[in-house]
Amino acid sequence: MDLVGAVKLFLLCSLLWLSAVTSCQGKENSSEYRYPFIRRASSFSSSSPSASLSGSHNTYDYIIVGGGTAGCPLAATLSQNFSVLLLERGGAPFDNVNVSYLKNFHISLADTSPTSASQVFISTDGVFNSRAKVLGGGTCINAGFYTRASTRYIEEAGWDAKLVNESYPWIERQIVQQPKLAPWQKALRDGLLEVGISPFNGFTFDHLYGTKVGGTIFDEFGKRHTAADLLAEGNPEKLSVLIYAKVQKIMFNTTAKRPKAVGVIFKDENGNQHQAFLTKRRGSEIILSCGAIGSPQMLMLSGIGPKAELKKFNISVVLNNRFVGTGLSDNPLNTVFVPTNRPVEQSLIQTVGITKRGVYIEASSGFGQSSDSIRYDHGMMSAEIGQLSTIPPRQRTAQAIRDYAAGKQFLPHEAFMGGFILEKIASPFSKGHLKLINTNVDDNPSITFNYFSHPYDLQRCVEGIRMMEKIVRTQHFMNYTQCDDETLDKLLNMSVKANINLVPKHTNDTKSMEQFCKDTVITIWHYHGGCHVGKVVDHKYKVLGVHGLRVIDGSTFRESPGTNPQATVMMMGR
Question: Does 433 qualify as catalytic in the annotation?
């Protein structure tokens, strides 16, 4: 090879090497966020590529507030034809091991650090609860169960059945799987059928009376897939996603007869304030997808809500609507612990019994023991996440949790072997409300659910506890736990010290059962309402009395769909 040829070869190799290094560096820098259109809020500027599509700085056809269960599929879908800005107050889930793996399920809920994927709140009822604070929303911190809404629910919501049936599969193809049924879930399945919760509907996404196995967003390796994964379907040329973008309020043009939403004010991770505006295109909108707590809170902080409440905090009234924040509901959950004489494989919800009385029976078992895990816990029922179900709600304090954490290290390992049977009350008649406590969007508002304030909810809880007692006594469960009476009594006595509730001894005493329901009520995180159709939004989810503003999330629901709402909230966004 001559000298000229050697130089050319050297230059070519150098160029290829530099190209490879640049490519690798680019991938490394974007790995945390996975997609190039996801950036930190501090990167927002007038030179933003997505912002300039309309020919005007920082303007978009759609601005979506809340990158959660509804917001992600909504943004991906709209970006096919329009410029979209999606603003999420939390970070990205992709490299967060507490979000990503089933074995760490409880840790993300127990994490109270500023970068946590969840934000704890305690309702005025005394029940600990959580809000998502991460791209992907509740799909990043839930138990993973996936099931569609019933046909009745879809009809009553007035949704287009054809569009619904096209939207569910779009989600399922990307993030949903059939679970590998854990032994505890098999025991529940057989126990449900033995006590007459039939027929067995096998594995199905559909909401059907009887016993079924639902879908899961955890894959065979225990890795979680979330609504954030649906952003892969977005158009990168038209979609911009900002994380750590805390929207402070919606801006309105109030010069016309009816106020019109025109933009939002948000702060980045450094506390710097920014503004983003809608384009002049007819039909451009701001869409709230902040969830049942965040959306009514954001409306009130922006001047839409009960006039007297807004004036307490010197918030300029854009629209007086006394229904904002009302009709809030949470599905009460009560559990019983079933000890075993050997370790049990960890499982979250896979099997469900659906009764016509609106009592749903589910189960969880085992606990995660990763190197980062809390030493001993009860998974979904961990006291670390406030599920102190032997302590009446008003006595569930931060100190009670600390005392539990300190004391449990002295408990025998056997006290933590076993699992739970859970009962959830569907469509609760008990209603609550949400009120502001200040104008800081980072703070939780005051939230009241009024669990069991309606006698029908309490009646159904008693029925559910009695049903769970029957299941525990079925041959299938007795065979699985392999406990004789003496061993069972010994394990129950140890379990009492572990702050977990057990099957009551006098289930024929209605009054004591009602008290048991009240004292052991916890949450399964399916709260909804606060922006009801017909009161806050119309049947197309446009906010009543203003232009250019919608709400697309569970705050519009009068009841929680299916046995878990995540499928329907994602479908709604799509």
Answer: no
